[in-house]
Fold this protein.
Amino acid sequence: MKGNDFIIVVHGGAGAMKKGLLTPEQEQSIHQGLFEAVEQGKKVLAQQGCAIDAAEHAVIELENNPWFNAGRGSVFDYEGKHQLDAAIMDGQDLNAGAVSGVQFREHPISLAKAVLEKSEHVMLASEGAEQFADDINMPKVNNGFFSTELRKNQWQRFIETGEDSLEPAEKDFKFGTVGAVAIDLNGNLAAATSTGGITGKRYSRVGDSPIIGCGTYANNKSCAVSATGHGEFFIRHTVAYNIAARMQFGGMTLNQAVNAVVMDELVQAGGEGGVIAISNTGELELQFNSEGMYRGWHRQGEETVTAIYKSDEQRHKSD
Ligand code: ASP
């Protein structure tokens, strides 16, 4: 790493994205969406903003984009509504905020950040999270605000085929969680993750995304990680903290730690998905054991890159 370069990395979910299933237009709009998210984070970092604000802004952009399974465009739960989860963590002081089962706030990531900043707690759930959002005057949206045709069709197919919630009919678009990790000019790390969870989820199921140490983790002593994939496995293997701990206590590089967890431990367990991560020395990893992962990154002074499959990197000129 050259001095204190800033870096922003985003993901828009991992899964069985076989080439040919998406039209070239869809692929292009995904690349564009990822690029715009990177730009949002980059803008904050270039103005000497902090990593946590950059991660939040990048995730807000992805929550706004209906293609991704977060914010508008989130999957439907079993009853046909949306319940959103999000978490954000500051690697400087290990402060963290998380929410689960959010139904009426446009940007769950901003609610998670408000939990970090304005409450003495780390994680608020369902009605309590909504009540907290009311108390801090965060505007409300209808739950239908999050619905799109694509997600409704996925849900209807899921209900018709009666497939188990972990194996939804539309496997090809199973994951779509979004996340961002950043390192700022002061060398501080942050991670943020936001999701609608999985299609047809029931019983207030909570995935890994809002659980600190599982889908989201940041510590200036090691790295920042945001995950996407089959949440139950990511919880059992405490994926994000697992990577950080291998670095901090096991002396691994970020590359070694990510590969050990994503390509070895998770593969052996059958847990599909991936992570984006930045180390405290500016190493960068985007690793997945699925066919694809929507992803994008920018290192200060270099081109922004976006990709969907194993090798389809698109380079974007940006100043
Ligand atoms: N990890 C998320 C969950 O299990 C899903 C995803 O990454 O798409 O809720």
About this structure: The mean pLDDT is 93. The longest strand covers residues 7-15. Residues 38 and 48 are 16 Å apart (CA to CA).
